[in-house]
């Protein structure tokens, strides 16, 4: 950097130099560029986009937790059905099955589901007919393994039951929930896609705003460019504006998004459902959500920096 | 080779065209030596402003070679141009003051861009505003200044950093004769005391006689008249001469 040469004269500093310097001490007055603001609604557009990302990210994380929790609960669970129309025989065969299952290596717990519990489960669908005995209800046995139920484990249990309780049906509970897992996974990808699209929209909004801001200040930029301003000095002026406006939008957007997430969380918590209770957030999830506005501001800064750099490249 | 021997600026067969239009400058070959004072004259449309744009690095030539301060401008990456621009002082034809800054802040711009200490900036700007008689207008923004006052601010901004080369496009066009002479004396002082090379484009033939040791570059339809070869091979130290008369 060039050091400015000495003053033309050796005259002492004028008496009124301090008065003249007043504007220089006022940073606002000494700004290289006027206090350009993004076109009116841009900070609010950023706020809305950040709020959408916060909600989408929270939704995606909740679905991930929910799938993980359900999978953990059910992965080691196997259900055995003993299908026997005769109630007396069904009870005896159920007891035989429990005895055989208890003896199998790797089985941690076995529970014969009481008939009253089965009737209560079926009653919403079958009505009073569920308790009448007109509809044969299989004996149901919950088996908990010491590890996740692999297809080999299911086959081993079925083989062990074959001799004592022929026709017993053995299913891993996680198999029933595979379509649910797939749906949850699809929703997580949807949330991720939504976040990517909103990030692109944020970048596009900032790109347009930065281009407009640059076009509005082009004359001034050309002057200071010809006076020896570097691209870095000129970019810094614009980036300060972008940082201020994007930070405002990010804080407002994050606030709105988190309020919506908390409200939805309360609504789901009120359902008191075993399925939704697995979607709660821990510290890690809240940190991810808190990172959303920071990443939004970084995207805005990066986009503005690239936009201004490209615009400056048009000048010699 | 140092600047003194090589010249501050060396044009070699330089041509300039805008887009696909015919050349506005053709076959310019000359050398500007440090510490010399040049007047650039010519009719309107002769290419004076285009030549000045090449000198103050607003434009690259379409052909030919330019060396400035010992560096090749044609191959120099644009990232290095700001350093070179800070060694120049420019008075633009239409002043080009930054409209939202006060006279004080406009004059301070070159020093602040160079990262000068603010105390030094204040002292230098106060002195310069005093010199051009605008101390009382230090806080005024350009829109509230008269044409002559704007021109003086532009001149103060151009010379505040004691440039190695001062390039001025019609710098006395909007000021009264007394102020014109005073500004010319400022340029001369820079030229004599700091060694600044001065290039002044002007229509004012009376001005040419005020600086006896100046060289005159005459442009005609984009071509430089140099019948004596004094611009290509100027006498050293600079001597009074009119080229292309």
Describe the structure.
By secondary structure, chain A is an alpha+beta fold. Chain A is built from twelve helices and four strands. A four-stranded antiparallel beta sheet of chain A has the order 2-3-1-4. In chain A, helix 3 (42-74) packs antiparallel against helix 9 and helix 3 (42-74) packs across helix 11. Chain B has a single domain, classed as Rossmann fold (3-Layer(aba) Sandwich), CATH 3.40.50. Chain B is built from eight helices and eleven strands. Chain B has helices at 3-6, 48-55, 81-85, 103-113, 118-131, 147-159, 177-194, 205-208, and strands spanning 9-16, 25-32, 37-41, 63-68, 71-72, 88-91, 165-169, 197-201, 215-220, 223-225, 241-242. Classes of the chains: A alpha+beta (316), B alpha/beta (245). At the A-B interface, helix 1, helix 2 and helix 10 of A face helix 3, helix 4, helix 5 and helix 7 of B.
Query: Which of globular, elongated, flat, extended, rod-shaped describes the shape of chain A?
Result: elongated
DSSP helical segment count of chain B: 8
- Output the helix-strand order of chain B: HEEEHEEHEHHHEHEHEEE
Number of helices of chain A: 12
Kindly identify the CATH topology of chain B. Rossmann fold
**CATH evolutionary superfamily of chain B:** P-loop containing nucleotide triphosphate hydrolases
Q: Estimate what percentage of residues of chain B fall within beta strands.
A: 15-25%
Helix content of chain A: 55-70%
Q: Keywords, please?
A:
heterodimer; A: 316 residues; alpha+beta; 4-stranded antiparallel β-sheet; 12 helices; 4 strands; 7% strand; elongated; disordered N terminus; B: 245 residues; alpha/beta; Rossmann fold; 7-stranded mixed β-sheet; 8 helices; 31% helix; disordered C terminus
Task: Describe the protein's topology.
The complex is a heterodimer of chains A (316) and B (245).
Chain A: H1 17-20, H2 22-25, H3 42-74, E1 77-82, H4 87-103, E2 107-112, H5 115-126, H6 129-132, E3 139-145, H7 151-164, E4 169-172, H8 173-176, H9 178-216, H10 218-226, H11 231-269, H12 283-313
Antiparallel strand pairs in A: 1-3, 1-4, 2-3
Chain B: H1 3-6, E1 9-16, E2 25-32, E3 37-41, H2 48-55, E4 63-68, E5 71-72, H3 81-85, E6 88-91, H4 103-113, H5 118-131, H6 147-159, E7 165-169, H7 177-194, E8 197-201, H8 205-208, E9 215-220, E10 223-225, E11 241-242
Parallel strand pairs in B: 3-8, 3-9, 6-7, 7-8, 9-11
Antiparallel strand pairs in B: 1-2, 1-4, 4-5, 9-10
Helix pairs in contact in B: 4-5, 4-6
